[in-house]
TrEMBL record:
The keyword Protease does not apply. Forms a complex with TRM82. GO terms for molecular function: tRNA (guanine(46)-N7)-methyltransferase activity; tRNA binding. S-adenosyl-L-methionine binds at G69, E92, I93, N127, A128, C147, T225, E226, E227. The keyword S-adenosyl-L-methionine applies. This is tRNA (guanine-N(7)-)-methyltransferase. The gene is TRM8. Belongs to the class I-like SAM-binding methyltransferase superfamily. TrmB family. It comes from Coniochaeta ligniaria NRRL 30616. The chain holds residues 44 to 295 of 359 of the full protein. It catalyses: guanosine(46) in tRNA + S-adenosyl-L-methionine = N(7)-methylguanosine(46) in tRNA + S-adenosyl-L-homocysteine.
Length: 252
């Protein structure tokens, strides 16, 4: 159940400064103690009327890339140097896995003598099937990754799949026109399901094979995700599909 998951009431309430301290707006000072704490809920804030609500600190950049169900973070670590000026966020529902990725990011940042590496990646615990618009504004994201999502093989479990008509509307909301959804899976049936649901959605069109293969993120998604490596070891197939968020039609 999700009742112990914490969400901001809206994107304005989300404090990213502890996730990406190197991207704090100049002039702002980091006043929080811990490096990457969980987000305070507004419920907590509201239940304590005497404590004044601390406005999140201003950031020079906003999160633009989301890795949905990031697992152990292989994609984040590899994309970090490829997109050095972009903030990337992994969202993961399993608490131990989220903690592992958070600790690894902290360690990798410390290890780096320049102090610049891995400052642009972070991870938080969330059920990405719910509340995405609590974290991200409309059209905030330029890329969303769905790497080896849980297949939920049985027909009666299909409604738990992370791609569906309803969820695709949420993804369309947080993605900017021109933004791209990246999908990869070793399960052919799930690949076909994702293609069918994105192609059926008016906000998305499939990206052509040539453009797909020229995109450096695609090679990384194939080779550097933990699941991608597993599938490689057993010489399994990997099915890739990309979908562009199209412009909304003009209002009449
Ligand atoms: N993307 C990683 C990779 O390619 O190696 C991990 C793939 S793993 C098969 C699927 C991951 O999605 C798991 O870590 C699981 O905990 C996470 N997950 C499943 N449902 C989720 C949800 N609703 N929100 C966030 N993460 C979820």
């Amino acid at each position: 159940s999700d009742h112990n998951l914490k969400y901001p009431v809206n994107p304005e309430e989300m404090d990213w400064s502890t996730h990406y301290p190197a991207f704090l707006d100049e002039g702002e000072e980091l006043h929080l103690q811990s490096e990457i704490p969980t987000t305070p809920t507004s419920d907590e804030q509201l239940s304590k009327p005497e404590s004044k609500v601390v406005r999140p600190q201003k950031m020079r950049k906003q999160v633009e890339v989301a890795d949905i169900g990031c697992g152990f973070g292989g994609l984040l670590f590899s994309l970090s140097p490829v997109l050095p000026d972009t903030l990337l966020l992994g969202m993961e529902i399993r608490v131990q896995v989220t903690d592992y990725v958070t600790d690894k990011i902290r360690a990798m940042r410390k290890q780096d003598a320049t102090g610049n590496s891995y400052q642009n990646i972070s991870c938080l615990r969330a059920n990405a099937m719910k509340f995405l618009p609590n974290f991200f504004r409309k059209a905030q994201l330029s890329k969303m990754f769905f790497c080896f999502p849980d297949p939920h093989f049985k027909a009666k479990k299909h409604k738990q799949r992370i791609v569906s008509a309803t969820l695709n509307s949420e993804y369309a909301y947080v993605l900017r026109p021109g933004g791209v959804v990246y999908t990869i899976t070793d399960v052919k049936d799930l690949h076909e399901w994702m293609v069918q649901h994105f192609e059926a959605h008016a906000a998305f069109e499939r990206v052509g094979a040539e453009e797909q293969e020229a995109d450096p993120c695609v090679a990384i998604m194939r080779s550097d995700t933990e699941e991608g490596k597993k599938v490689e070891r057993v010489k399994g197939d990997k099915y890739v599909a990309l979908f562009r968020r199209v412009e909304d039609p003009e209002e009449p």
